[in-house]
Design brief:
Shape: globular
Radius of gyration: 24 Å
Oligomer: single chain
Number of helices: 14
Bound molecules: ligand 1PR
CATH superfamily of the largest domain: Aldolase class I
Number of domains: 3
Helix content: 10-25%
Length: about 525
């Protein structure tokens, strides 16, 4: 849609100029930027050409997936041509911007229909069926004809309200089990091997969890692309197997997840470009799942076994071509922020405001946009004696309350899946990642991972306060109330869970219903006409 416009402050290359208005950057004064997530559209009443103007399959009752930092402001006085072309608008914070443009057989949208689930599929389907007018609108609209400015149905300036929703993300930690099959696993505090007591298992795409047998090992050798979430029974010490990644991804899509994350949790051991099963999993998942897909694990510069160097950008590119929408960078982000901080001038206490352009965050954000780069953080609490602590993280100390009364701690970053602690706090990492160009923080907690004790609200609030990009709270969800708590008590944009969804203890629609009950905006989906195809 944006390429139809005159120009954009995002770069110096002119647009096609068919719409003689400019694209500008969102303000982050009242909201996080990028605008990343599901939002509603408001159709404008004006006629938009020869066809049936209202009938593009856009539905005001549904939500569409947006991910962008630049937008065409809907401002009939300052940008009249954009307002003339505007067919629907969306509000984010206090800003109203053009969601779709339409004239005759030209239609453009700011959101991603291919990632907007049923709503997007319906739009594409309707548009492809529309009668094509004989004359191209583009041919007729240079320069734009002086059509009168339409009377908008949306009042301008707008009411201080938007349809932006909180996102629920299902996360699959993927690794090879001892038989070499890629499985979805889940640990407690990052330990993914079975202890004495086995977890519940999922059998087939639609059944409820069945209790596992404790001692048998019917380890599966089916492909990670298998369509059913095949069961593996468990023995102590084995990698916990909670299903097949592609089958689970399809199930969570059909169940109404707003986004999926697939994390290759042992990728630090080998070259991701040689990890063809993981790429095949991403490809197969993306073929059936029309919501955003984040892929993480091993996004860094590597060297192939034959000595060929591979850049993080190449690794990310392979995932994007396989169907990922965002890549998530863990360990490499920590090292990059350490380098950034080391470059800060020793005699001033100021943080460096830009990197040298070489880190994975910077190279990928430069090529694909910052919205495509997530930084996955694996922090751990470090308890200190608050009365004597005089270390560098004084300002970040959390003082416990309730059953943690008297305790104090700060959050330390780790790398390699929590195996190594670094001299970097979560606040330092979050700020540094934002400076380098990350578009989102995926905030795990090693202390809460797999415990079901709820999100670490102190941690989430701390990071939310210190960055102005979206934050995804992760680790510890044990029931629906935990999602309500994290949205009500922190300003976080999204919440992610793994174990409770894999074990079928909580369904995604239960979470959504509970959010609605608590007046927390969440994405509406219609009963899926695509579900049958997905299965
Ligand atoms: O360092 O760039 O190669 O990325 C490795 C990625 O793998 C990081 O995102 C890191 O968080 C992840 N990872 C590494 N080891 C583990 C492990 O579990 N042993 N998983 C791991 C991290 C955390 C979440 C989990 C939530 C929700 N898992 O992904 O899904 O904690 O769990 P819950 O709802 O069950 O509590 P790099």
């Amino acid at each position: 849609m944006q390429v139809l416009f005159q120009s954009s402050s995002e770069g110096s290359v002119p647009g096609l100029g068919i719409i003689s208005s400019k694209i500008g950057l969102f303000s982050n004064e009242d909201k996080t930027v990028p605008h990343m997530g599901w939002n509603s559209v408001h159709l404008l009443d004006a006629p938009h050409g020869d066809g049936d103007a209202a009938d593009e399959g856009l539905d005001e009752a549904l939500h569409y997936y947006f991910v962008h930092s630049y937008r065409a402001a809907y401002d009939p006085e300052r940008e009249p041509d954009a307002a003339r072309w505007a067919h629907s608008v969306t509000q984010y914070g206090r800003e109203v911007f053009v969601a779709t443009v339409r004239r005759d057989n030209v239609f453009g949208c700011q959101f991603h229909p291919e990632k907007s689930g049923d709503a997007g599929m319906c739009l594409l389907d309707t548009w492809l069926r529309l009668r094509q007018p004989a004359t191209s609108a583009v041919a007729r609209s240079r320069p734009s004809p002086p059509t009168p400015t339409p009377a908008p149905r949306v009042p301008f300036p707008p009411a201080p309200r938007d349809g932006f929703t909180k996102r629920i993300i299902a996360c699959m930690d993927v690794r090879a089990n001892d038989q070499g099959d890629l499985v979805v696993t889940k640990g407690d505090q990052y330990d993914v091997r079975e202890k004495r007591r086995p977890t519940g298992l999922i059998e087939g795409p639609s059944s409820l969890p069945t209790p596992a047998t404790a001692t048998t090992t019917t380890t599966t050798t089916t492909s990670p692309l298998a369509s059913s979430a095949t069961v593996t029974a468990t023995v102590a010490g084995a990698v916990r197997n909670l299903g097949k990644p592609v089958a689970l991804a399809a199930r969570y899509y059909a169940a109404g997840a707003d986004e999926l994350a697939l994390l290759n949790i042992t990728s630090f051991r080998h070259s991701p470009l040689h990890d063809q099963p993981m790429l095949a999993v991403v490809r197969a998942a993306a073929a059936n799942v029309f919501i955003p897909l984040t892929i993480g694990g091993g996004i860094r510069d590597t060297v192939d076994p034959d000595g060929t160097p591979r850049s993080a950008l190449e690794v990310a590119g392979a995932y994007f071509r396989a169907g990922a929408d965002k890549v998530s960078i863990g360990s490499e982000a920590v090292y990059a922020v350490e380098r950034l901080r080391a470059a800060a001038t020793a005699d001033t206490d100021t943080e460096v405001r830009r990197g040298d352009g070489s880190s994975a965050i910077e190279t990928i954000a430069h090529a694909y946009g910052r919205q495509a780069v997530v930084v996955s953080v694996d922090p751990k609490r470090v308890y200190v004696d608050a009365s004597t602590y005089d270390g560098p993280r004084r300002d970040e100390l959390i003082h416990g309350s309730g059953d943690e009364e008297g305790k104090a701690w700060w959050y330390q970053c780790t790398v390699s899946g929590g195996r190594e602690a670094r001299d970097l706090s979560v606040v330092e990492l979050g700020r540094g990642a934002e400076v380098l160009g990350a578009g989102e923080i995926l905030l795990n907690s090693i202390d809460r991972d797999g415990t079901g004790r709820g999100f670490d609200l102190d941690l989430v609030n701390l990071v939310r306060r210190n960055v102005s990009i979206p934050v995804v709270a992760s680790s510890g969800a044990g029931n629906v109330q935990h999602f309500v708590d994290v949205f009500e008590k922190t300003g976080v944009e999204a919440a992610l869970a793994a174990g409770i969804f894999h074990r079928g203890e909580v369904q995604i629609d239960e979470v959504k219903e509970s959010l609605v009950t608590h007046n927390i905006n969440s994405r509406k989906t219609k009963p899926s006409i695509w579900e049958k195809d997905v299965e």
